Amino acid sequence: MSAPSDRWADLRPRVLSAIVMVAIGAVEIWLGGASFLLLITALTSVMIWELARLTDQRHPERAYMIAALAFVVLMMDEGWPSVSAWLVFPFVPLAFLVTPRAQRDAAAAISVAIMVSGHGLFVLRDEAGIAAVLWLLGVVITSDVMGYFAGRTLGGPKFWPAISPKKTWSGTIAGWIGAAVLGLVFVLMGHGSWPLILLSPVVAFAGQMGDIAESWLKRKVGVKDSSNLIPGHGGLLDRFDALVGAMVAVMILTRVITLPIGG
After folding, report:
1. In the chain, where does DSSP find H-type helix?
2. What is the pTM of this model?
3. Helix, strand or coil, per DSSP, at residue 36
4. 213-240 confidence digits (pLDDT tens)
5. Of the candidates 151, 114, 154, 133, the residue with the CA atom closest to the CA atom of residue 203
């Protein structure tokens, strides 16, 4: 059994890194436009670089090439309205498929999710407004924070021990509850309608599955972190894997329903 000090050893760097990321993100979400697009494109490209690096550690130059391709593709998609995402996005997963690498098919699929989430964040901010982006980020952050503290305080049965041995059912369910409460807060503030309370845990669950997917890939390739760019968090993909899953879910949902939030 871990000592209490060991259990919370990573809390300080996690909090400090989170404060910096939230501050930068808040400014960029408020600004929107080209500045927000550049940030999202840069973050997406770095996550693609980390993914390519994870699955082909012997040829780091290939990771830079695929990341550069992702950057160009996203800028083309958002910078030139006449260019459809469906025409340019396939180049990124194809780059994973045509080069020898570990878990090639899985890496290609995850690259699609990363690209879709980058595109989706910009579209969400542009079309649904600041409140929608804040809700999405809030669901992911609240689910993560509630899961972190509930899991490490309450413990209990593991959620999926073969893939992510630290995650517990108590933390997972606490994340769903936290997301629902956040949805209620947005409704009471006048930024959404009542279905948002039910939708929020669904999106939180998708985020948790994004986290699980990255954990599975790292376990398969024998790597602990996607990189060491963020103190206490590892890499961008380690920090934003849940956001990728949640954003993909929102993009799918918007094909069949109108999001009960906006403004």
Report:
1. 4-7, 11-31, 33-55, 60-79, 85-88, 91-97, 104-127, 130-154, 169-188, 195-221, 236-253
2. 0.88
3. helix
4. 999 999 999 888 888 887 666 889 988 9
5. 133
